[in-house]
Design goal:
The chain is α/β, with parallel strands linked by helices. The strands form three sheets. Strands 12-11-10-9-13-7-14-17-16 form a nine-stranded mixed sheet, sandwiched between helices. It has a six-stranded mixed sheet with strand order 1-6-5-4-2-3, sandwiched between helices. Helix 3 runs parallel beside helix 4. The two termini are about 30 Å apart.
């Protein structure tokens, strides 16, 4: 253990309440970056002066595109008042020279007296070196405050670093009996306007939104964020399209120059169709086919992670949803539930994925339940 470096399971210092409140404020700031900072993590930083009764002198969060970092932003706002302050950071400050100098060095140079860090960064370029540098410079450094909240918030970044792929959130909207459409295919609108607004908020918090070609053809979606003030937060769009059936005059293709659009297909796809899509600004990604002849989803996940994506929202039909679950890629669920019933002849949210016994069924833990007008939004995470 380095001098001045302490791992904490819970904060038991005399300033425990203040530390907890300030770290949670930093986590709130970090959340502002979700969906706009990939491939970097969304980090929040608050600078507070203990000698001024905990007065906050600087706030910062990771800026769009991943830079400037949260610490740099907070130090810039604090100026000379950073001298002697405590820095509350939701993820270990970086300690490597990239496009900007290391944040660990910036904190030390600013005269930070104390640094409270929620979570160690598993990125091999950091992985404890930022903590070590701070501690060796004489900065009192505490690790682990609100670590579970920080881990939940940056689960996508952590998954990309440790598993090489983004976190996938499967979003669906169903009736009480789990139907997404009537027997004729009618689905507008199962949920009301408040729930649809929540769904657009989810889009803004994700790096990309993914659908299957069936959804693209049936719904002709634009997949943009249309919440007032967040129009610029529309995520990158991805269509899984084995045989390149996406029409060149579809809304997704026609707006590819404004909102980046990727089409994932199998190797050896029709070159004429590929060239037509690329001429409209769509990027076509070829992936080896799986046993079902479609792009292998595990390979797709690694390809997306390799391109820097950390959070992917999947707004799919039943087939893609089932495939994600079958391949253990559905990390979270965002399930909107409407107080309606359609019946067994309606279309289910998830197609068959080969479960014969209850013990084989993937299990999830509910994180939250929120009223959305007359509807309900339930969020779940996969159990390990």
């Amino acid at each position: 253990m380095w001098a001045n470096w302490t791992v904490i399971a819970t904060n038991t210092s005399p300033t425990a309440n203040r530390d907890n409140e300030t770290m949670r404020a930093a986590l709130g700031l970090a959340r502002r970056g979700l969906g706009s900072v990939w491939p970097n993590p969304a980090v929040g930083c608050v600078l507070a002066r203990e000698d001024l009764d905990g007065r906050v002198v600087g706030r910062g969060w990771t800026q769009p595109g991943g830079r400037p970092h949260a610490e740099t932003e907070a130090l810039s706002r604090a100026g000379e008042q950073a001298q002697g302050a405590t820095a509350y950071v939701t993820l270990e400050p970086c300690d490597h020279q990239g496009e900007t100098p290391p944040c660990s060095e910036a904190l030390i140079a600013a005269g930070i007296k104390r640094c409270v860090i929620a979570l160690e960064d598993p990125d091999p370029r950091v992985s404890g070196s930022g903590i070590k540098r701070l501690a060796e410079a004489g900065v009192e450094t505490l690790i682990g405050l609100c670590d579970q909240e920080a881990r939940h918030l940056n689960a996508g970044f952590l998954m990309r670093v440790t598993k090489g792929r983004p976190m996938f959130t499967l979003k669906t909207a169903t009736t009480l009996d789990g139907r997404v459409a009537t027997v004729t295919g009618q689905s507008k609108w199962i949920t009301g306007a408040p729930a649809r607004a929540f769904a657009h908020g989810l889009r803004a918090e994700n790096d990309a939104i993914m659908i299957g070609i069936g959804t693209a053809l049936a719904d002709q979606p634009s997949l943009t964020c249309r919440l007032p003030g967040l129009e610029g937060r529309s995520p990158l769009r991805i269509v899984a399209d084995t045989t390149l059936r996406l029409p060149v005059d579809s809304p997704l293709v026609n707006t590819a120059d404004d909102v980046p659009t990727w089409v994932v297909t199998v190797k050896g796809a029709d070159q004429e169709k590929r060239q037509a899509l690329e001429a409209k600004g769509v990027e076509v990604i070829e992936i080896a086919a799986g046993d079902d002849g479609r792009p292998d989803l595990r390979a797709v996940a690694l390809e997306l992670g390799g391109r820097g994506l950390t959070r992917v929202l999947v707004e799919s039909g039943g087939d893609l949803a089932a495939a994600l679950i079958k391949h253990d890629l559905a990390d979270r669920l965002a399930w909107f539930r409407s107080p309606k019933l359609i019946g067994a002849d309606g279309r289910g949210a998830v197609a068959t994925f080969g479960i014969d016994a209850i013990a084989e069924a993937p299990a999830f833990v509910r994180d939250s339940i929120t009223d959305a007008g007359d509807d309900v939004l339930e969020t779940y995470r996969r159990t390990l």
